[in-house]
Structure to design on (203 residues):
């Protein structure tokens, strides 16, 4: 299959003032587009890989041919991670998780505030470029982690539910070097309905 840059579920200026329109436009139309194009270029060399779902490739990088493994890891991860990042944000959503997800967060982390503290720490303390995640294992047990560059929790057997991009291009026009300010403000954008749907869909 050929991967296509997805349309955002909102306009570039919809997340202002937390994420400005220019950052959104550059991030989506330039950075995400580049990952998309590079992923398609890498897979052209191995047509059999095009028949597989991207999640399957990222979950089994050891079976990806060496000549494109790094390209799939970086650009496939970049494509997948950004798709989720856009999806789990909204200009007007629930301010906190609902239903079973809320109970599981309390059970695993003690409270929503403690979860936010742990997640924010992972995001702010990630050295260099990367991501912070809420993910779940095959038993639907939650965990918080960060990954470097465009690595995905899929490659460690986890299913991503929520993520924040902490590459500088995600926030630098507005926040400059103040990553912590960006992370703090970002909590107002979470689409908890989508996160709950993803958690509920786990088997």
């Amino acid at each position: 299959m050929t991967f296509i840059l997805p349309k955002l579920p909102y306009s570039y200026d919809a997340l202002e003032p937390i994420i400005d329109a220019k950052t959104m436009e550059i991030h989506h139309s330039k950075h995400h587009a580049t990952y998309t194009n590079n992923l398609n270029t890498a897979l052209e060399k191995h047509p059999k890989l095009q028949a597989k779902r991207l999640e399957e490739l990222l979950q089994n990088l050891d079976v990806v041919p060496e000549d494109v493994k790094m390209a799939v890891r970086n650009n496939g991860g970049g494509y997948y991670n950004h798709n989720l990042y856009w999806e789990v944000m909204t200009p007007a959503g629930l301010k906190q998780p609902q239903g079973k997800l809320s109970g599981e967060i309390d059970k695993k982390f003690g409270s929503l505030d403690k979860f936010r503290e742990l997640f924010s720490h992972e995001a702010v303390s990630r050295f260099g470029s990367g991501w912070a995640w809420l993910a779940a294992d095959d038993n639907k047990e939650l965990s918080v982690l960060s990954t470097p560059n465009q690595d995905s929790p899929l490659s460690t057997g986890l299913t991503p539910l929520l993520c924040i991009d902490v590459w500088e291009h995600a926030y630098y026009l507005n926040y400059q070097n103040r990553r912590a300010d960006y992370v703090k403000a970002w909590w107002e954008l979470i689409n908890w309905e989508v996160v709950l749907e993803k958690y509920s869909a786990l088997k």
In short: Residues 21-87 form a domain with the Helix Hairpins fold (CATH 1.10.287.990). Residues 135 and 161 are 5 Å apart (CA to CA). The beta strands are 130-136, 142-148, 159-165. The chain has two domains: 21-87, 99-200.
